[in-house]
Amino acid sequence: MPAEVVLYAPNVHTGGGFVLLQALLGAWPSAAPLRLFLDARVEGRLAVPEGASVYWVRPQALARLAGEFAARRAAEAGSILFCFHGLPPVLPSRARVVVFLQNRNYLGGIKLSQFPLKTRLRLMFERSIGRLFRHRVAEYVVQTPTMRRAVLDWLGEPAQSPMVRISPFAGSMPAHAVPDGRETIRWDFVYVADGVAHKNHRRLVQAWALLAEKGLYPSLAVTLGPRDESLAAELLAIAAKHGLRIDNQGELSREDVSRLYAQAGALVFPSFGESFGLPLIEASKAGLPIVASELDYVRDVCVPAQTFDPGSAVSIARAVRRQLGQESGPAEPVSPEQFWSMLRGSGPQASID
């Protein structure tokens, strides 16, 4: 008989984690018992399987602690405590603890100085929880080989570490996002991502400014929500200064994201690191060419049409130009005689694009 599952998912209320949670709950076997501990902010937005019991966890410290106690009581011996929020339980559990780890920020290696102070303090606390209580975990579940390697490095000696299983999954997209549902192209490129620092929006806009210097003005849609208002305002001000065709669509529902894919010519994805990179999966299913960072996490889940160094606005701009069919050749070296002519003002000026 399958073990009873207690799914603990506080603080999962936006982004890729929320999309995956929706898909997972939508596929739950209707006859199987399920106990859910969910973020109160998703109440009314998330379809709960029929017959499942739900404890709504409010986003406050004391409420989270109360949720931990309630989950500990619910997770009996022989059951599975599935920590979907990426952290082990603070309290010891009689159940088998499985952690779905989809946040690379918990593993270190990413400078916290790039985050706002409030986020920095939260991540410091969560990293401490992850490290102090990892001995409670029987198994980690990740979605890519790159993430598995990162978790094993973080855990230390693999022989004494919990099992780290690779088990990717993604829900289906609405019908109008599949290739035969393509609409009129409205955007040359789209970037579906929130505004956390590693998503690299600023360098992407720098690349668009470089393209403008060459007389290229591809259209770009981004999806920065209310939490990223200051970043969105900053990027749109730069766009206005240089005459760039950049528009912020705001935080979108899953249906609106799929429609955005249907109206796009390509996905651009300059992120420095992802545990999964759900938009890469979604764009592939929607038949979009992908212009993305030349990093392991990208090739774990898709075959990009063009790649670039995410740390270089020039490299991003060049990849975009290749995708647009506007690639320029490399600089041709001149002879020493031509160099002297150029230096003395009587020869052609060389340039590197």
From TrEMBL:
Xref: SUPFAM superfamilies: UDP-Glycosyltransferase/glycogen phosphorylase
Keywords linked to the UniProt accession: Glycosyltransferase, Transferase
EC number per UniProt: 2.4.-.-
Domain Glycosyl transferase family: 187-324
Pfam families hit by this protein: Glycos_transf_1
Top EC class of this enzyme: transferase
Region (Disordered) location: 325-353
Gene3D superfamilies, sorted: Glycogen Phosphorylase B
InterPro entries recorded: Glyco_trans_1 (IPR001296)
GO terms of molecular function: glycosyltransferase activity
Protein name: Glycosyltransferase
Originating species: Achromobacter seleniivolatilans
